[in-house]
Amino acid sequence: MVVLDYDHAAGSSPSHTFSDSPFFYDRSAANGSGQALFQNASNVQPHSNPHVSYYFPAGVGHYHYGERHPMKPARLTLTNGLVLAYGLHNHMQVYTPREATKDELEAFHDSDYVDFLSTVTPSTPPSPAFTRFNFADDCPVFDGMYDFCKSYAGASLAGARKLAAGQTDIAINWSGGLHHAKKCEASGFCYVNDIVLAIMELLRYHPRVLYIDIDIHHGDGVQEAFYNSNRVMTVSFHKYGNDFFPCTGNINEIGTSLGKHFCLNVPLQDGIDDAGYVSLFKSVMEPCITTFRPASIVLQCGADSLGLDRLGCFNLSIAAHGECVRFIKSFGLPLLVLGGGGYTIRNVARCWAYETSVLTGCQIPDTLPNTPYDAFFAPSYRLHEALQAGRVENQNSKASLEKIRVQILEQLRYLHGAPSVQMQEIPPDLAGGWLEEEMPGSGGKDADGSKTS
């Protein structure tokens, strides 16, 4: 049984285990860390490094929701700038993916809804369709909206296909992760649910897919899409209560029909800190993975769970957010990593650049490299900016977090092991699958699709 270890994270000495006793060979100078034996051995290399693919749709950071809207696609340009400036692209295959086709979007979304997305413009007169499809202040109509949706959805689909084909171990698409969009409506700044589309693609080859969401908002669109399925387990860590959007994600929402107990929700309160969040995350996710035994994992890394986020109320540091990513990577399963929320864009870029380094296994300095966007990171110009300056009072007690952990583990007992799936001949792909899937980001172009000099 995994026990939450708050005292160690808070700075007190860690509890000793049986393997720390003198009867065992002391493998390291550090407390119990066998890896320390090889820290200074320059000739010792990892058995194998994961193959990482990085997807950045051309021009995806140039779209604009509106002057006062908190969603800023420009954060993707800042992120990509840091990734390139740190040289992380040298440790990945970088691709400029094609856009998703209309047929691919309609694999999940209703055709009437996709038709509306493809034809509506900022000058379209108001009509009942705006209300029907939930287009309002949160989900405005802006120039290039449909192209934006096709771009980020196409990148997630390309990553899923490469994972399913066994051609990569990790696929990254920071422009994706828009988890609120529903089958027939926009919601929470999200128009097309690229996560659902990617999971559906993975399910064509993989019997079980695990979806993990560390955005501060509940991943309601993904949960709803697979609420009746036992082939997808959804696990969401989020703020819940006080009418916080989207007002779903109670721990009692566990799925229905075949999907009963395959939906896990971890509702948290304001101000959770690094120690409580990371400890709870690890103690929940390890038994989830070992019990459900997924063939692949989709990880949504919404950065609005960081401290000082414009719309958030947690106290997480970039290091803690990245530790969750590192932990999931350590299981060695095919992994699709997506973006999501995040509204203080300088911190979003810092976070996703750092997590790109985690996924590629690279050590990067705390001092930020020079980019055309240096002004966004003034005055510190550091990667790990202190995000506790506007600290929110932590309303999550140790007892409440332990209660959540126990409830989640109790729910896992009902699974009785991973469900078996009868796999049949794989159906042919949509017509879009025969189009050119992706283009390398090198060879005369930067990862943002712009030509190099």
Automatic annotation (TrEMBL):
Residue positions binding a divalent metal cation: 215, 217, 304
Cell compartments where the protein resides: Nucleus
Sequence similarity: Belongs to the histone deacetylase family. HD Type 1 subfamily.
Domain Histone deacetylase: 69-358
Species of origin: Pseudozyma flocculosa
Keywords of this entry: Chromatin regulator, Hydrolase, Metal-binding, Nucleus, Transcription, Transcription regulation
Catalysed conversion reaction: N(6)-acetyl-L-lysyl-[histone] + H2O = L-lysyl-[histone] + acetate
Pfam families in the cross-refs: Hist_deacetyl
Enzyme Commission numbers on file: 3.5.1.98
Entry protein name: Histone deacetylase
Top-level division of the source organism's lineage: Eukaryota
GO cellular component: Rpd3L-Expanded complex; Set3 complex
